[in-house]
Design goal:
This protein has 230 residues and is of the alpha/beta class. Helices cover 51% and strands 10% of the residues. 36% of the residues are buried. It binds adenosine-5'-diphosphate.
């Protein structure tokens, strides 16, 4: 079963491809941003603390993140045997603590998907999403700040996971179906998904990420950061 971490700057498509992976694999999809926004919407004390950070585009402190997310990740992994972590970990302390946690509970991640796109493309996608969804942190100033926070706090994780031999780097500056085809090929080559895995199924609750995989004979445009180690 896949135990995947989605690592990507805001706007690169981690939500879209996480939802697609959930459909493909049955592994639980846990979006840290969604869990945090739900806590804010509940209006709890914890939610008020969280909102002070998310509204500015700053990272929520690691202690709060673990308090809120760890129970959800453990429960989901127990229920489905795997997970797709969308937005967590995103600091080195989070990654190291998550690795310890995973080792203790036999839930170690076996794949990290690093999604990339040019910065101006990221900004334009997020501004589009702001027009559709009105997320309070999708304003130009906060978007730029979130991208800077990603560069400072989260990019060190790329080399960390590359060093563990579990990183796949994928450009999302191309059709979703091409990204998904490359993702599927890589997971299958590593034995994380059966070769005959179902391609896609409509998910009416979450239409954004469910584009069926199209032409499998496309040119290979992926940058594979690590070849399968087995
Ligand atoms: P994006 O990736 O577009 O910034 P998310 O929905 O993943 O959107 O996250 C929204 C906000 O939630 C982040 O800007 C940050 O404030 C907070 N957040 C999400 N995940 C984490 C995390 N792992 N650690 C700290 N803060 C987080």
């Amino acid at each position: 079963m896949v135990r995947v971490i989605m690592l990507s700057p805001p706007g690169a498509g981690k939500g879209t491809h996480s939802r697609w992976l959930r459909l493909q694999t049955g592994a639980a999809h846990i979006s840290s941003g969604d869990v945090l926004r739900a806590e804010v919407a509940r209006g709890s004390d914890l939610g008020r603390q969280v909102a002070a950070y998310t509204e500015r585009g700053d990272l929520v402190p690691d202690e709060l993140i673990f308090r809120i997310l760890a129970p959800a990740v453990v429960a989901a992994a127990r229920d489905t045997g795997g997970y797709v972590l969308d937005g967590f970990p995103r600091t080195m302390p989070q990654a190291l603590r998550a690795a310890q946690f995973g080792a203790d509970l036999a839930l170690t991640s076996n794949a990290v998907i690093y999604l990339t796109a040019p910065e101006e493309e990221l900004v334009s996608r997020l501004l589009d999403r702001a027009r559709r969804e009105g997320r309070s942190d999708d304003t130009l100033g906060v978007i730029r700040h979130r991208l800077a926070v990603f560069a400072r706090e989260t990019t060190p994780l790329i080399d960390y996971y590359r060093g563990r031999g579990i990183l796949l780097e994928l450009s999302t500056d191309r059709p979703e179906a091409d990204v998904q085809a490359d993702l599927l090929d890589w997971l299958q080559a590593r034995g994380l998904m059966p070769p005959a895995a179902r391609r896609s199924e409509p998910d009416h609750a979450e239409p954004a990420g469910d584009t069926p995989v199209g032409n499998r004979d496309r040119p290979a445009t992926t940058s594979l950061s690590n070849k399968p180690s087995t």
